[in-house]
Input
Amino acid sequence: MNAAIRAVTRSAIDKGIKVKAIYRGYNGLISKEIKEFQTQNVSNIIQQGGTILKTSRSEEFRTPEGRELAYQTLKKEEIDALVVLGGDGTFRGAQALSIEWNFPIVGVPCTIDNDLYGTDDTIGYDTALNTIVNCVDKIRDTASSHERLFIVEVMGREAGFLALNSALASGAEDTIIPEKETKVDQMEELIRHGFRKSKNSSIVIVAEGITGGALGIAERLKKDHPEYDPHVTILGHLQRGGSPSAYDRILASRLGAAAVNALLDEQRNVMMGITNGKVVYVPFSQATQKKKYIDESLLNILMVLSK
Ligand code: F6P
Output
């Protein structure tokens, strides 16, 4: 997110536009936590994880009264347009504010879940994916030395992009993702085919959103198949921190610059995206309501390659 903040700030200043940074998201807009930014305010942040602007969930902004207060701040601060950074909740809020008060807003997609329709990747996803793969590589050392089965839980309440692609990239034996959870009883299938026929370790990567998560899967496995002694690792919030990958920094730089251009092009209510290498504008309504599907062929590839 810092790389995107840097890109928006410097692209705007380059176009002669004044930049005001809003701290703590919509809460900060309501409580007027605002500071004018110059070029140097975003120096040395491209390599930092997190966000220098802080973030928060705002219950007040969910109400029309809260959004009216936010609008009053915008008027008082003489802000003519907003660039919001976030995921679907952020864009839903932006859409409501924009419609109620006829205010120009564009969005930059930031979520490690990569679950926003209309863009191939969201900012943070690639970094989180690399972090997971790094961790699984390390877990593999124990799994293989001790000939153990590990169940690794990664983030993703409703989306399996992190789980599926980290499974492919780390050579995991299987993945269980929310999108496919109900299709078959994957653990039973795996056991039937034998985890260990030709291998001395097994790693299954599960998304946190599946029923019971990794702990639930492990419990069930121990109960139904006491011959297995699965070990669980929940990666948790370490997936959301750390210095961003080069890919994420470039993505954030492109999307942040695109957001400023979009506003100058009179675009409203759109999220910046990149598909097939090109910047696209995706209406907030689509980004938040349309489902981004996983590529199911990747599951088949995983199954073939993990045999
Ligand atoms: O929506 C992004 C996400 O990273 C999810 O994958 C995860 O479940 C959630 O945020 C964690 O949010 P919090 O830090 O508020 O618990």
